[in-house]
Amino acid sequence: MPELIIFVISLAAIIKGADWLGEASVNVAKKLGMSQLLVGATLVSIATTLPETSISFFAGLEGESGISFGTILGSPAANLGLIMGIILLFGKTYPSKGYFTRTLNIFIILLTLVFIIGLGGSITPIAGWVLLFIAIVYLLLEFFVSKSEEGIVDQIETRFSDIKGFFNQSDGLKNVIYIFIGATLLAVSAKFLVDSATVIAFNLSIPTIVIAATVVALGTSIPELATAIHSSFKGRLALSVGNLAGASVLNLTMALGAGSIIHPIVVPKEALIISVLALAVISILNLASVLSKIAKEKIGAALIVTSIIFALVFISVEIQT
Q1: What are the two backbone dihedrals, phi and then psi, of residue 266, each rounded to the nearest 5 degrees?
Q2: What is the CATH number of the domain that holds 96?
């Protein structure tokens, strides 16, 4: 089956792209005096959200609302549910309380906004442009807030010298090239992976929105999974968690906005309610990982179980409707 071969090759390329992007991003952060949190919240989050954004945009062009909506809500469930569960279950340290809680609170607010808009039956082009504007504001805020959280001494030392030194060194351009190649490989490979997985799923007569919320969402979250595993094993949990939380926020803003700026995205009520409830539970569990005294391993296991239950319930309900 050619689709299976494409799937396997794309998966390998995605993992390699995440490796290049993660390594180059950390190098750039060190040379420019940027924290790992800042890199994860902006640069890596944008790069690993490109698959969802591109799929949502092109699906919107073709009027395929099921693919757009399923991918956008399924991907955060995979990021903050399955992948974050793996990190908490097997990682050695806890997430950063300040950044992580702030981003999760923003995610919950945006989830509420999307729920309210979705109750009207669709995400209109006007709402899409508003969501894109929110994405830009979020990225700008994260940039300045993350910079303000760095040490005063570090800021004084790096403010004037790091940018000049970065471009004067021979490996500076190399890092930029690897970031570009890594991000491109992530986006292109994820697209091929999703296309091949979608063909396989269609051959099994699975509804479009089910394919999007499960196969497509999991496929587009593989960059986040690869980056998370890579960062965790190399002791870069801040980069890993920052990427997951930031990417989830961008899914609800940048990706959803891109998919609805041309044609409205039709929102099935059952899918909206199930997804929002599941994401609300997942968000609360993530907050509990940094705000409560519950062992992170227990919360990690609960996140994995919740994401699996969500997928099973979603599939069951949508197949029957």
Answers
A1: -75, 130
A2: 1.20.1420.30
